[in-house]
Amino acid sequence: MFYTRIYSDEHGDSHFERVDVALSERGEIGHLSELMSVKNLQFRENKPDYNWDFHNAPARQFIILLDGEIEIESSLGEKRSFKGGDILLVEDTHGKGHRTENITQQIRKSIFIQL
């Protein structure tokens, strides 16, 4: 299992990084990661025409996309697409931020989990 991390470097530029999550065999219940402490959980729906120019993440948080498809652009111009089932960790709470655009014109649902 993995998630995509979006973070700011020392110059304020945003970057993508793949982070693999270590899972341990737990018998009948499957494979589990180590526990992570969380602060808040929030459900969200976006309008079909949702596009947000460059912005910073409001908090260090996981975003779990439940449906739809988005494109995120880093401050350096790198673009990646994400769809329902993908997990992001946004940590670019300072710097130049990232841009988000809905690719599919539908209401998009996601879950935010602040760390």
Short description:
This protein has 115 residues and is mostly beta strands.
Could you characterize what this model shows?
The structure is a single chain. The strands form 3 sheets. A 6-stranded mixed β-sheet has the order 2-1-10-7-12-5, with no helix packed on it. Strands 6-11-8-9 form a 4-stranded antiparallel β-sheet, with no helix packed on it. The model has no long low-confidence stretch (mean pLDDT 97). Helices cover 0% and strands 53% of the residues. It has strands at 2-8, 14-20, 24-25, 31-32, 40-46, 51-55, 61-65, 69-73, 79-83, 87-90, 98-102, 108-114. By secondary structure, the protein is an all-beta fold.
Number of strands: 12
Structural class call reads mainly beta
Poorly predicted regions are: none
Q: How much of the polypeptide forms β-strand, as a percent range?
A: over 45%
Radius of gyration over alpha carbons? 15 Å
Major sheet: 6 strands, mixed
Count of helical regions: 0
Mean pLDDT: 97
Question: What is the N-to-C order of secondary-structure elements (H for helix, E for strand)?
Answer: EEEEEEEEEEEE
Strand order of the largest sheet: 2-1-10-7-12-5
Keywords:
115 residues; mainly beta; four-stranded antiparallel beta sheet; globular
Topology:
Layout: E1 2-8, E2 14-20, E3 24-25, E4 31-32, E5 40-46, E6 51-55, E7 61-65, E8 69-73, E9 79-83, E10 87-90, E11 98-102, E12 108-114
Parallel strand pairs: 1-10
Antiparallel strand pairs: 1-2, 3-4, 5-12, 6-11, 7-10, 7-12, 8-9, 8-11
